[in-house]
Amino acid sequence: MKQKSSFALMRSLAVQPSARWIFCGLLLSLTGCGLGKQPSNHRVWTLEHAVMPCAHFHDDAVTVRNVRNFRHLSEDHMLPGYHDVTIGINDVATVDLFLCYFDSPASPFAHSMLSFGTFQQDQHLLLSIEGRREEGEEFNLRTAVGRELELIYVFAEERDVVDQRAVVRGETVRRFPLQVCPRQARALLLALLRDANQLHAEPRFYRLFRDNCTSNLVRPTGNLTGGPIRRSKLSVFPGYADRTLRSSGLIDNRLPLKVQRERAEINHLAKRYRNAPDYSLKIRGF
């Protein structure tokens, strides 16, 4: 996939001191390519980004409309589906961080996602913040920094996104439960839902280092992520998010990092239980 090769190139340029000026010049030139272009919600979008979600708040519950529930048969063949999900706000109890490595499992670059669970344990709502692609457009270094991709908040069933990345694409996917209380989980979900609603009126560009999957996930958390320095590390090097959040106390740090990463990997569970009715419980080892 071109996504892999582009970020492998970016990684190699970024970590070699002799190539840092080349890397900076490349980013500057690519960033300037889209100057003058305005973000829009009205383009011919690729199938998986065709529909934007929105949230309707009522009493002590929220209904998330257009929750994606695709079945991915291959990278280019998918069966689309959407439905509405209603969650009691006081039922929200947990947050899991998913890290998806499309290059090396030790890469500093990864795609991050959050999944919100309820006290019922079998209800989870996953959020993947992505660069919204038009038909025929690819996610790569040029489009990610060149103001060519809009921003989309994809609320989805876990089976949809985890299966796509772990099984169909073969990315290394790890799940880390965050050590937050239910009050913090609810506040984070509500903030992100309001962000998703705002994109309907004010579309934004996806920007690799400023307005990306991880920066938008951590932006509403205030001091939860350990202050601006750690939030900056999360945004630029999301592949190291587990290490950063361990030092902040948001991920259990009793195990050595290497052991924890091995135990957090869920690819084998995602493959074994991709058609199981209780998918979210199975990928958690229940």
SSE order and pairing:
Elements: H1 2-15, H2 20-31, E1 54-58, E2 61-68, E3 71-72, E4 78-79, E5 82-88, E6 92-101, E7 111-118, E8 124-132, H3 141-145, E9 150-156, H4 158-168, E10 172-177, H5 182-201, H6 213-218, H7 228-236, H8 241-247, H9 257-264, H10 267-272, H11 279-282
Antiparallel strand pairs: 1-2, 2-5, 3-4, 6-7, 6-10, 7-8, 8-9
What do you see in this structure?
It contains 11 helices and 10 strands. The strands form 3 sheets. Strands 9-8-7-6-10 form a 5-stranded antiparallel beta sheet, sandwiched between helices. The longest helix has 20 residues, at 182-201. Helices cover 36% and strands 22% of the residues. It has helices spanning 2-15, 20-31, 141-145, 158-168, 182-201, 213-218, 228-236, 241-247, 257-264, 267-272, 279-282; strands at 54-58, 61-68, 71-72, 78-79, 82-88, 92-101, 111-118, 124-132, 150-156, 172-177. The protein has one domain (42-282).
Strand content: 15-25%
Helical coverage, percent range: 25-40%
Query: Widest sheet: strand order?
Result: 9-8-7-6-10
Number of strands: 10
Order of helices and strands: HHEEEEEEEEHEHEHHHHHHH
Instruction: Detail the poorly predicted runs.
Output: 4-31
Count of all domains: 1
How many strands, what sense, and barrel or not for the largest sheet?
Answer: 5 strands, antiparallel
Overall pLDDT confidence:
83
Instruction: Count helical runs.
Output: 11
Rg, rounded, reads 18 Å
Backbone structural class: alpha+beta
End-to-end distance, in Å? 33 Å
Shape: globular
